[in-house]
TrEMBL record:
Record organism: Sneathiella sedimenti
EC number(s) per entry: 1.4.4.2
Domain of life: Bacteria
Keywords linked to the UniProt accession: Oxidoreductase, Pyridoxal phosphate
Annotated spans, Disordered: 1-25
Function comment: The glycine cleavage system catalyzes the degradation of glycine. The P protein binds the alpha-amino group of glycine through its pyridoxal phosphate cofactor; CO(2) is released and the remaining methylamine moiety is then transferred to the lipoamide cofactor of the H protein.
Catalytic reactions on record: N(6)-[(R)-lipoyl]-L-lysyl-[glycine-cleavage complex H protein] + glycine + H(+) = N(6)-[(R)-S(8)-aminomethyldihydrolipoyl]-L-lysyl-[glycine-cleavage complex H protein] + CO2
A GO term, aspect molecular function: glycine dehydrogenase (decarboxylating) activity
Span of domain Glycine dehydrogenase C-terminal: 380-475
Protein name, entry field: glycine dehydrogenase (aminomethyl-transferring)
Domain Aminotransferase class V as annotated: residue spans: 182-302
Class of enzymatic activity (EC top level): oxidoreductase
Pfam family, one: GcvP2_C
Length: 527
């Protein structure tokens, strides 16, 4: 049951006693402390009792290990408990609401996982002969068809392993297209609100990044864009909807203008979730666009992978797509893996093997379970949820850009001015309320930015509770309860850390307190 602030009510019969949370074990109820796994080892303890191996003649040429390997000796229950305890300290979409804007944390339906583990799919090997994986190739081909249909684009490169990898694919295709025409262009135009990977990708491909400012309404300044266009411009990299959560209303004009000078239009597809089934990027003049399968089609994300960033391409760029790619002929499905024939103009291979098969399976299962009408509703509900949050907080937080947003609601920190509370302090207090904080301080064009993206998966009750928690915290901040925020989080497994110090001086190796050699002693001192 929720109260009028959207917060859970707790049935009580008497006032709760004021008790210390200090315990002998360090545990707090089911929140269990666990030493480093290296600190738990006891010499001679084993999880599996195995017979000594038969002696064999060494083939290591005198390079055999002389000392212990450095791993702890543990029992099976110790190992299991340790990692289960660690997992309980992670926040996840399966545990609660994830308002992390700019990098959608969507619900991953269980049907996706079931399908990905089916025999014949979950046990594939990338080096099997194509004759033995016809079903897998058909699946890749089917997913490619869905992606091309959804975006209105004639071709798609399936192998890129993530969004940034997809950006690299698109810009490499643009460079290859210019080189095929004998052109050597030097600049790529990038809006100042772009994802950081956009200018990084352009620079990696040898281009000078020319930043384009935004207007007061959060969209790209068309006059500044026109002034920067010229015969040395290879293309523009634009996110639409953009990073401020707004649709670039001049997008077709932008495409026409860059095409007039012989450049290409790269669209960052990170925010496709907002326009899915409503707008086809191909109809807007897009030449290349990566698609984050985790942001739009629910494949898992985090921990560095696995990712998948297929890139849809226009007719002008399709000949330069990377290898390998799937073809379908009289003899069934096959893979084009050499730069010849249909792939003669390909810029080459980006990745080992053929892409992230597990992500392809999950994405196609998601598409087929929703159907065309369901995919369209995803975008409608995502935009509705974001605007519900925007309206629910608009009297407490300032929106730097007026009007309806798309998939994410953007606020600044002007309401907190003079309170002594920063965006970071507010985010730390959100942890105590049971939420992973939203994206903070991004986009950089907004001071103290708070970017909130609820996705389409969340119910009104979940959003009401989140809005209630945010309003409660903002009331505390404006009421002068600064010390509360400066000490938050109070209930997390760890309090505030020196994140800057940890990033600049990471301790990447555990050293035993009993270490006596010079190297270990110096490492201990550095730690």
């Amino acid at each position: 049951m929720l109260n009028n602030k959207g917060r859970p009510t707790q049935p009580t019969t008497q006032s709760e006693p004021d008790v210390s949370i200090d315990t002998f074990t360090g545990n707090k109820g089911l929140e269990l402390e666990s030493p480093l796994i290296f600190e738990q080892g006891v010499p001679g303890r084993v999880g599996v009792d195995m017979a000594d191996p038969e002696p064999v003649k060494s083939r290591l040429g005198g390079l055999e290990r002389k000392g212990p390997i450095g791993l702890p000796d543990l029992s099976e229950p110790q190992v299991l408990r340790h990692f289960v305890r660690l997992s309980r300290q992670n926040y996840a979409i399966d545990a609660g609401f994830y308002p992390l804007g700019s990098c959608t944390m969507k619900h991953n339906p269980r049907i996706n996982e079931k399908v990905a583990r089916l025999a014949g799919l979950g046990d594939l090997h990338p080096m099997q002969p194509t004759s033995t994986v016809q079903g897998a190739l058909e699946l890749i081909n089917s997913l490619a068809h869905w992606l091309k249909t959804i975006t209105g684009m004639p071709a798609v490169a399936m192998s890129p392993a993530a969004g940034a990898h997809g950006e690299l694919c698109g810009v490499m295709a643009i460079r290859a297209a210019h080189e095929a025409k004998g052109e050597s262009r030097t600049r790529i135009l990038v809006p100042e609100s772009a994802h950081g990977t956009n200018p990084a990708t352009a620079a990696l491909c040898g281009y000078k990044v020319d930043s384009v400012p935004a207007r007061k309404d959060g969209r790209m300044d068309m006059d500044a864009f026109a002034e920067k266009l010229g015969p040395d411009v290879a293309g523009v990299m634009l996110t639409n909807p953009n990073t401020c959560g707004l649709f670039e209303t001049d997008v077709k004009k932008i495409a026409d203008m860059v095409h007039e000078v012989g450049g290409y239009f790269y669209c960052d597809g990170a925010n496709l979730n907002a326009i899915l089934g409503r707008v086809r990027p191909g109809d807007l003049g897009v030449d290349a666009m990566h698609i984050n399968l985790h942001k739009t089609f629910s494949t898992p994300h985090g921990g560095g992978g696995p990712g998948a960033g297929p890139v849809v391409l226009s007719d002008a760029l399709a000949p330069f797509a990377p290898i390998p790619f799937v073809t379908h002929g009289e003899n069934g499905f096959d893979l084009v893996e050499q730069k010849s024939g249909a792939a003669a103009q390909s810029f080459g291979r980006m990745k080992g093997y053929h892409g992230q098969m597990g992500m392809f399976i999950r994405a196609l299962a998601y598409m087929q379970s929703h159907g065309a009408d369901g995919l369209r509703q995803i975008a409608e509900d995502a935009v509705l949820n974001a605007n519900y949050i925007r309206v629910g907080l608009q009297d407490k937080l300032n929106s730097p850009f007026s009007g309806i947003c798309m998939h994410e609601a953007l606020f600044d920190d002007s309401t907190l001015k003079g309170t002594g509370v920063t965006t970071l302090d507010l985010a730390k207090a959100m942890i105590d309320e049971g939420y992973h904080p939203m994206t903070m301080y991004f986009p950089l064009v907004v001071h103290g930015a708070m970017l909130i993206e609820p996705t389409e998966s969340e119910s009104r009750q979940t959003l009401d509770q989140f809005i209630g928690a945010m309003r409660h915290l903002l009331d505390k901040a404006t009421a002068g309860e600064t010390e509360y925020f400066l000490s938050a989080p109070l209930f997390a497994p760890r309090r505030r850390l020196d994140e800057t110090g940890a990033a600049r001086n990471p301790v990447l190796r555990w050293v035993s307190p009993e270490a006596t050699d010079n190297e270990d002693a110096s490492l201990s001192a550095a730690s």
